């Protein structure tokens, strides 16, 4: 990846591509980063931070814009449902100054899963609530319960239901070296939708959030990496934060967000640490049905990280044109993701 000039893209600045030697993106003062679908989220987070908000409140406010957007099928209202047509949401938050975390999984009927996760952190002695218990906890704290399915997401689910035999998640008995499993057309193009957002506030404290409707048309009750601390999100106030999007199962088996923060603790840049996590997943993926003809993962995972000193970076397994969003006092911009393998 060579160094390129910044360009304008629909009113959003595009940062220059990193050099292969450094991949450095330094931000002075408060900064917020997120997955590519979070450009509005990082703008809102920075507005909150500049007004004096704690980083955790800021990132939760930011992703709330995406959770309530019916046109975004990756989170919240309008998120794609499970195999039975029920939207089940996962989310986690982690607060750097206190070291505390909160999460919800398989949460039904509540638009702002990230806000419920924040309530778990602040109003309980637990870290993770799931299913009906998570919903009852949300209701107790005044969250309205509603149908999260939109007509757009219902139509997507209906099309999948009509072709159920091709690309569901149920696997027959098989050996790990059986490459015929999961080879149906479109299997590895299934929709993993998530937003991760991490930030540094005016006090230099770090916090983060990850929220998702999970894998589209998943087996009911499936929980991905997003609500699991150390997998979909990890924060250490002395070091920084990391989060992920993409195939949650791969990240759950590697606890990559924790790994990324620990690599940064040892001196890696955020980009180097994210690439390390990508390589770890690629090297540890063994089932044949998850590999292409060259022994590489057939799926993608993206990582986003920031260090407390303001350095940010990200990487994905398959890329070439991937970006993530970042914002500081100068506004929002898109930053290239490093990658292991170039997508055709």
Structure description:
It contains nine helices and 16 strands. It is an alpha+beta fold and 344 residues long. The two termini are 16 Å apart. The strands form two sheets. It has a ten-stranded mixed sheet with strand order 1-2-15-14-4-8-9-5-6-7. The protein is globular, with a radius of gyration of 19 Å. It has a single domain (25-167, 175-342), classed as (Glycosyl)asparaginase (Glutamine Phosphoribosylpyrophosphate, subunit 1, domain 1). Helix 3 links the parallel strand 6 (100-107) and strand 7. Helix 2 (55-67) packs antiparallel against helix 3 and helix 8 packs across helix 9.
List key phrases describing it.
6-stranded mixed β-sheet; single chain; Glutamine Phosphoribosylpyrophosphate, subunit 1, domain 1; alpha+beta; 10-stranded mixed β-sheet; disordered N terminus
Write the layout of secondary structure elements.
Blueprint: E1 7-9, E2 12-14, E3 25-26, E4 31-35, H1 39-50, H2 55-67, E5 89-95, E6 100-107, H3 113-123, E7 128-130, H4 131-140, H5 151-162, H6 164-167, E8 192-200, E9 206-215, E10 233-236, E11 240-246, H7 248-252, H8 256-265, H9 270-284, E12 301-307, E13 311-319, E14 323-328, E15 331-336, E16 338-342
Parallel strand pairs: 2-15, 6-7, 13-16
Antiparallel strand pairs: 1-2, 3-13, 4-8, 4-14, 5-6, 5-9, 8-9, 10-11, 11-12, 12-13, 14-15
Helix pairs in contact: 1-2, 2-3, 8-9
């Amino acid at each position: 990846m060579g160094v390129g000039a910044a360009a304008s893209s629909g009113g959003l600045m595009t940062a220059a591509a990193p050099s292969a030697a450094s991949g450095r993106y330094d931000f002075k003062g408060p900064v917020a980063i997120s997955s590519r679908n979070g450009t509005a989220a990082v703008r809102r987070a920075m507005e909150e931070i500049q007004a004096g908000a704690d980083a955790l409140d800021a990132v939760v406010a930011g992703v709330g814009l995406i959770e309530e957007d019916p046109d975004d099928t990756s989170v919240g209202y309008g998120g794609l449902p499970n195999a039975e047509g029920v939207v089940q949401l996962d989310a986690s938050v982690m607060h750097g100054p206190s070291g505390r975390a909160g999460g919800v999984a398989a949460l039904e009927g509540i638009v702002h899963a990230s806000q419920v996760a924040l309530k778990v952190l602040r109003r309980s002695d637990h870290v993770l609530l799931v299913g009906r218990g998570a919903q009852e906890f949300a209701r107790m704290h005044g969250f309205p319960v509603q149908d999260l399915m939109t007509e757009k997401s219902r139509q997507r689910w209906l099309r999948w239901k009509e072709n159920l035999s091709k690309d569901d998640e149920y696997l027959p008995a098989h050996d790990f070296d059986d490459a015929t499993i999961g080879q149906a057309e479109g299997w590895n193009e299934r929709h993993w939708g998530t937003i991760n957002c991490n930030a540094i506030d005016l006090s230099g404290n770090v916090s983060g959030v990850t929220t998702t409707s999970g894998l589209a048309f998943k087996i009911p009750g499936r929980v991905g990496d997003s609500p699991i601390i150390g997998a979909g999100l990890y924060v250490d106030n002395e070091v920084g934060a990391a989060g992920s999007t993409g195939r949650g199962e791969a990240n759950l088996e590697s606890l990559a967000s924790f790994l990324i923060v620990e690599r940064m603790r040892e001196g890696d840049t955020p980009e180097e640490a994210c690439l390390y996590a990508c390589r770890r997943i690629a090297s540890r993926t063994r089932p044949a049905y998850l590999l292409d003809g060259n022994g590489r993962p057939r799926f993608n995972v993206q990582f986003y990280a920031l260090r407390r000193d303001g350095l940010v970076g990200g990487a994905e397994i398959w890329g070439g044109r991937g970006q993530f969003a970042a914002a500081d006092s100068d506004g929002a911009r898109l930053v290239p993701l490093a990658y292991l393998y170039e997508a055709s």
